[in-house]
Amino acid sequence: RWYEVKDELQHCSHLLTDVTIVQHLEALRLIVSTGAGKMRDLLCEGGRGKCTLGVLLAVNSRNSNLGSRQVQGVILGSSAHVVGNLMKGDEILAVDGETATGENLPTLIRGSDAVGSRCSLKVDRQGQLFDIELSRTQMSDVRSTERILDLLETHERVIRQSQLPSHTTDSLLSSLQMILGQIITNERRR
Q1: What's the gap between Cα 100 and its chain centre?
Q2: What InterPro entries does the record tag this protein with (predicted)?
Q3: Which residue would you say has higher pLDDT here, 116 or 44?
């Protein structure tokens, strides 16, 4: 048993504990480890990873103007959005050093599907090659941030169309920009 006190520490009364504490610790151990003793990824949803880099691929798109390795767009609030270097039409040449094809690109992008895992993309934008580092983020977190950013865009549009005095409009738009900046800063730290 993992919670036994070593022989040389048996006389230390401060190491003794109530049996209910040990039972709770045992219950926690069962939650965070598999039957084989390996640690579970508690950030996965339903035992399966559901992460995203936020890259929308043209591979499954009906848009005939884009090739199978080209970026169709990025998801608001995702790592790809926060980093800000990917654009529609960029071509992904490699993922973590492995050459990308139309067939393997979705699998390479998914990678380990572990929250926080890093991914390096080699990208071609109209003949200009560059590398970009992204982090996989839990899809539910990205969707939540995406909803907030959508609301901010809606509020900005309403403010711009309003008949408010210009100083009020400017003040409200400035506040929205500060909120947006804080959200982006928080996402970069994630």
Answers
A1: 21
A2: PDZ, PDZ_sf
A3: 116
pLDDT (0 to 100) of residue 84: 85
| 116 and 136 Cβ atoms separated by less than 8 Å | yes
Chain centroid, CA 27 distance in Å: 29
User: Do residues 119 and 53 make contact, with C-beta atoms less than 8 angstroms apart?
Assistant: yes
> pLDDT tier at 5 (50, 70, 90 boundaries)?
low
0.70 exceeded by pTM: no
Pick the closest to residue 135 from 81, 87, 180 (CA basis). 81
Residue given tokens 């506040």 in the structure block: 175
Tokens of 70: 């080209």
The identity of residue 154, as a single letter, is: T
Amino acid occupying residue 7? D
For 40, other C-beta atoms within 10 Å of its C-beta total: 12
- Six-digit token pair at 169? 């409009």
CATH topology of domain 51-138: Pdz3 Domain (2.30.42)
The CA distances from residue 22 to 15, 28, 38, in Å, are: 12, 10, 20
Query: What does the alpha-carbon distance between residue 29 and residue 186 come to, in Å, rounded to a whole number?
Result: 31
Q: Assess contact for 74 and 81: CB atoms under 8 A.
A: yes
